[in-house]
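ok so for the tutorial part 2 we go from a plain amino acid sequence to predicted structure tokens. step 1 is just haveing the sequence, like this:
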Amino acid sequence: MHPWDAINLNADLGESFGAWSMGDDPAMLDVVASANIACGFHAGDPLVMRQTVRAALARGVSVGAHPSFPDLQGFGRRRMDLSPPELEAVLVYQIGALQGVTAAEGGRVTHVKPHGALSNMACADAALAETVARAVRAVDGGLILLAPAHSELARAGEQAGLRVALEVFADRAYQDDGQLVPRSRSGAVLHGAEACWQHVQRMLDARALVSVTGRRLPTEIDSICVHGDGAEAVATARAIRAGLAGMGVAVVPLPGMRRRTQGQGREVAI
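step 2 — the prediction. this is what the tokens look like for a chain of 270 residues:
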């Protein structure tokens, strides 16, 4: 039986840019409870940011910054080697930009989730993860760091004194060490709403990451991510929300997420 009464469902949104459109953000915002909004360095622009924030707030969806390496042409998926001071400045700049946009719409940014190659590298590199956590804390120590389960990024956030929400991916396969299967490999991205829901359900039932070989890595699960840029994204998010409802699990924004401690039957805020 699922050990939680509630869980968060999030998506990476606001990734259109100028005349270039990506994803169906309005439809996705009707399903998810938290939005990770691109801050202009891998996708998004000031107008797209503001429109996405406005749409999220209108639906009661919590707003998070989705900062990346400065890699607009590569959609933030190319590895970059930035010094810690430069990377920290890049992150502070992006988070601050979204804070300004969100404040102008009468809301506030409640979490930060790194994007793409930055996230993947920080999940495996403790020093890089520490820089990311330090940047988030420098902007606002009350921000939630949305980080993949079993990652150096999650550990760095906890060590920095940040609230950390542990995330699993509905549409990505895992390696035995808990890292994502690289997109260059076959089977890295799961396709079809039912396949994604089954993947999520296996992890919820096991209370663990489940790798492509079946290995289980026990973890709390605070949030489920559906990438918003795929053609099947909205259908996948709807299937997951329906599946959670069938299990009696409510979908809530990150700031309202509480974790039920295993074996103790009590809930604590993340």
